[in-house]
Amino acid sequence: MPDASAGSLDVKRVVTLAGATVLIATQTIAAAVAGGWAIAGFFGLGEIGAYALEAAGLAVGVWIVVKFVRAALKQEPLRTQR
Predict the structure, then answer these.
(1) Cα separation of 24 and 44, whole Å?
(2) CA 56 to centroid of chain Cα atoms
(3) Contact 81/7 with Cβ under 8 angstroms?
(4) How far from each other are the two terminal CA atoms of the chain, in whole angstroms?
(5) pLDDT reported for residue 66
(6) For position 8, what pLDDT does the model report?
(7) Are the C-beta atoms of 57 and 32 separated by less than 8 Å?
(8) pLDDT at 31
(9) Calpha distance 82→58 (Å, rounded)
(10) In whole angstroms, what is the distance from residue 73 CA to residue 17 CA?
(11) What is the residue-wise DSSP string for the chain?
(12) Spatial CB neighbours of 1, under 8 Å, sequence gap ≥ 6
């Protein structure tokens, strides 16, 4: 059961955070994966090397997005105070 003292969910904040997260996630992850592909092509690492660097870029991109969401939730909570 939700805590009554926590306040009500602010839909405007939820929509704003969701929109910002989608924007940041698509740009960050796409840039990280594309960077892995470009580096592998530059150094001639082949298909397996490209997949490995793309996977590493994906992991870094996801980590950055998680850090963004955590910081955003700490700065701007989704519930309003009563």
Answers:
(1) 30
(2) 15
(3) yes
(4) 17
(5) 95
(6) 87
(7) yes
(8) 95
(9) 40
(10) 8
(11) ---GGG--B-HHHHHHHHHHHHHHHHHHHHHHHHHHHHHHHHHT-HHHHHHHHHHHHHHHHHHHHHHHHHHHHHHS-SB---
(12) none
pLDDT for the residue 30: 95
Q: Which amino acid is at 23?
A: L
Token pair, residue 56, equals 């590493």
| Residue 12 CA, distance from chain mean position | 20
The two three-digit tokens of residue 11, written as one number: 């839909």
Closest among 7, 25, 3 to 72, alpha carbons compared: 25
Neighbours of 80 (CB within 10 A): 12
Residue numbers of the chain with a pLDDT score lower than 70: 1-6, 82
Token pair, residue 25, equals: 């996630």
CA 35-37-41 angle, to 5 degrees, is: 115
